[in-house]
């Protein structure tokens, strides 16, 4: 049966939508990160995108895990790529973000195929693939599972060599591609030239000052490039962090949205949802529409 849901590209391009909430490694506040339960929780909450980390096992299968070892999430000082998928799938994950302070759960390391089966036609996926050489095989897996238009693939677009690789390795597959551009870099002008020349559907962008985004808001919109910003504490830009957003969501997430950001990756998706709902209620009141309780989910 043909899905009535929009593709990832169609959803991102919809001018009527609000900022997309990207749940980093799923909702790991109540489940192990990168687990099926963390992803299902994000789906049930109505978030739009889940970010997951993808690696390849010793027998060539894809699985979800962020770290280079199994120590934090499974209490084993082993390299995960040296184990088979069957061995990995028996390992029980520690809760939340792992470590000895979190209990061992019944959740296991999931395969990418399990994730695709769970998420198909239910939520979009941001794939953080740990080795670019895996990209063609991950694309083939996504096509075989019927989710190729529901996931994104991403890579740096810093140099003309990066552009040549993207055109050779990604463009022929016709899958959603997100460029990674760094406005805080000394060669930001070149990176912007490459970005506007390629015009991907979305750009994961970092910056030194918010006006680097706000002053180009119209240009990004006219080029059809949606801006994605991470407010994760470890990879945020210019102090626009999740920690700061907990105390001042309007001053962090609100200012990003006003500057033209259309997708925000966060470890606090529930707090970002609360901000977006408050903004929608204020907008409804401003238009003379009665504000009757919480607005419906956008998921």
Automatic annotation (TrEMBL):
Gene3D superfamilies xrefs: Phosphatidylinositol (PI) phosphodiesterase
Domain of life: Bacteria
Pfam families associated with the record: DUF4996 (PF16387), GDPD (PF03009)
Domain GP-PDE: 19-276
InterPro entries (UniProt xref): DUF4996, GP_PDE_dom, PLC-like_Pdiesterase_TIM-brl
Protein name stated in the entry: Glycerophosphodiester phosphodiesterase family protein
Transmembrane segments: none
